[in-house]
Every structure is written in C-alpha cells, then in structure tokens.
Hints:
There is one protein chain. The protein is of the alpha/beta class. 33% of the residues lie in helices and 23% in strands. The chain has helices at 5-13, 25-40, 49-61, 127-143, 165-171, 174-178, 232-250, 288-308, 333-347, 406-424; strands at residues 65-67, 75-81, 86-92, 150-157, 183-194, 198-200, 203-206, 208-217, 221-222, 257-266, 272-273, 276-285, 318-320, 329-331, 352-354, 376-384. Strand 1 and strand 2 (75-81) form a beta hairpin. Helix 2 (25-40) crosses helix 10 and helix 9 packs across helix 10. Mean pLDDT is 94; it is low at 1-19. The protein binds zinc ion (ZN) (2 copies). One zinc ion (ZN) binds at residues 125, 127, 160, 188.
Amino acid sequence: MILYPFITLFLLLSPSSEEVEIITSEESAYLSDLYKELHQNPEISLQEAETSERIAQELEIVGFEVSRNFGGFGVVGILKNGDGPTILYRTDMDALPMPEKTDLPYASTKTADGANGTTGIMHSCGHDMHMTSWVGTARYMAANKGQWSGTLMFIGQPAEEIGQGAKMMLDAGLYETFGVPDYGIGLHCHPTIPAGQIGISDGYTMANAEMVDIIVKGVGSHGASPHMSIDPVVVASMIVMDLQTIVSRNLKPTESAVVTIGAIKGGTKHNIISDQVTLQLTLRTYKPEVREMVHRRIREISRGVAIAAGLPKDLMPEVIIPDVYTPANFNNTELTNHIIAVSKESIGDNNVVHAEPQMLGEDFARYGSTEHKVPTVLYWLGTVPDERLGMENLPGLHSPFYYPNIDKSLKTAIKVNSEVMIGLME
Ligand SMILES: [Zn+2]
Ligand SMILES: [Zn+2]
C-alpha cells in the first residue's frame, strides 16, 4: 500500500476522506467531457466502432501501444514499464437498445424517434463510466511511472451485454498474443451504492447465466374434444410447476440457484388444442455441481411429466441447453483482500462496503476462468448522485432513468484502481 505524502496531508486537513483529490480539476474536467461525449454517442453490442476508436486514441495519447479490432472491436493497450507483474484491467464498451429518459443536458443523441434508429440507444449500464474510469486510470498510471514497475494490459471489451465480448477477445488469442496477466481487475457501476464508495466481496459474486429452451410436444385436436388430445399446454403447465421444486426441494438449502421460466409460447386460438409449447428459461447457479444438478432435474421433470401424460417416446420434450454460457464470477480472495485494504486507506473505511453476491451474469468472469487461472476481481463502483441519496426505488441498471454522479464516481474509481495497481507493482 502506498500513501502519497500529499494524500496524507489532505487526510489530516480534510474532515472526510471522500474529498481527497487524486487528480487536478483540469484533469477532472477533461474526463468529465470525455464521459459526456461517450454518453451522448452510445453504440450497441458488436457495433462499437467509434467508441473503440475513441478510447484507443485516448490510450495512445498517454503512450500505450494499442491494438485495435482484436476480437470484434476489442482494444488492447499495453504499457511496459520495467520488470514486474502484468495487470489486466478491463472496461466494456457497449450500450443498450433503449431510449434514454433522464432529461440530462448530455443525454444520448440516439433517441427513439431520431435519425439514428427507432429504438434509441442508451448507456444505461454505466459502460461509459467504466470507459472513462479506465482512461482516467491509464492517464494517472502513465503520468506516475516512477511509482510502479511492470506491465499494464488495458482492454476495451465489446459486446458485454450479449455475453460474447470476453469470449471473442480470448478466442482471438488475448493471452497468447499479449501474455497471461498475473492479475485481472474490472469494475461495474452499482445503482444503489452512493458515489464515493465501492462495494466488494470475495468468492462467487455473479452467477453462471444460461438460457434453456424446453420444447413440449403434444397431440393436437379440437378444443371441444380434449379426450382426443394430449394437451401440451397442460403438460407444459405441470412442468412449469414441477420446475419450482428444483430450488425448493432438490437444492441444498445453503446453496443458491435460480430457475425462472421467462416465456411460455404455444397455441394459436381459443378452440384449438395445439401440438407444441415452448418454454424459455433462464438459469443462474454458482457451483458447477449445482449447475449439473439443475440441468439433470430439468431433464428428469420434463420427461417424467410427459410420460405421466401418456406421451409416446417419440414425443418426449426436448431440453435444449447450449454449450456457451456466461460462467460465474469468482473473486480471488487474496486480490479482494488487497483491494479492500488499499481502498480503506485510500477512500476511508466507511466507503468500502460489503456487496452482496448477485445472480446476475457478467462475462468478465471469463478472464479468470481459462486454464491459466488468473486471479481476478470485479468490484462495484458506487454511482448514486448526491441529489438521489435517500430516494426510494432508485433506478437500477438498464433503467432509462439511471445516471451516475460523474465526478465523484470517476475520482473514486481512478483512486482505487491506480492505488490497487501500484500496490501490486511497487
Ligand atoms: Zn448491462
Ligand atoms: Zn454492464
């Protein structure tokens, strides 16, 4: 842990460590402008052409060697500064296809009825804040090379929202081309933690996230002649109810899993018994053995209900579980403890909060899930603006009303990131 002399001085003078400045007001204004520019010009997954070019330029300005279009629109910036560990720091770049409703003066220019499309595009998941923090950290690290020794691997990842970007960059040979990092860090904006704070915990923090389809077959007939049918709507309904018992009856009570049936699709008209119903599920788990158990029970329940309904062998339900899914995020304990210790000194004990694990999916998990077992941590950056503190029902991520406090969030991220990195590379 490094405490710079000027920070110590501020700590002594300042009543609250939140007010400790790590960057000048000019630097802060520069980054705030960059944030607004990115926010106003969002691009959706797999279309991050201008965004990636913009942040690639920012890294080049401060001396990083930059590779573009690495795994889609992926950006890899390398800054070598003597011997020492390599630290990967990832930002994502994509926005969401939805209209912004914040009424901010710097709201997205891609509105629902504008020239750029019909749905509108918005950075409602805070990836613009992730990018600006990433650029700000790069600028700080490049300006303070005397304090660290090692290699920075800053990556700009496309297509996080569709769970593909990390895989695209790893499949393109990220580690083979640029080396296997010793550590990996990333952050994500948090919609209910106040700006000025971070949230963190070790172990599983985000879930295996996967989409499963069940195609339930039946024997169709006239709605008034149910005795001539095997009604797939009824079979599917029974499957839906029985699936509820996986979490309540099959899962060890101290473990976690989610089985949500998000969609049921079947039938065409009031008086027709159809011959097929499709169920669309999202599954969330942490541990591999729990994931396997959930898969097994989905197959057993679907088949068992179909047999009980009298369906013949060739009309058994099809359970489709794709091979590709977002793996669970596991925060390495040692690296988590390092980040907690550094941030407590850096932004104050009260500003480092324990963040509850979630069942969301985040493909950052992939960087630590390869055979190399890179220790990684994804932490939460508090973003709630002062004017929204105490507000009930704060807008969540992906809400058209979500927006972060720019200045405080940025400074907190840059301070934590750079001190965490310097602490690993002294
Ligand atoms: Zn998102
Ligand atoms: Zn996100």
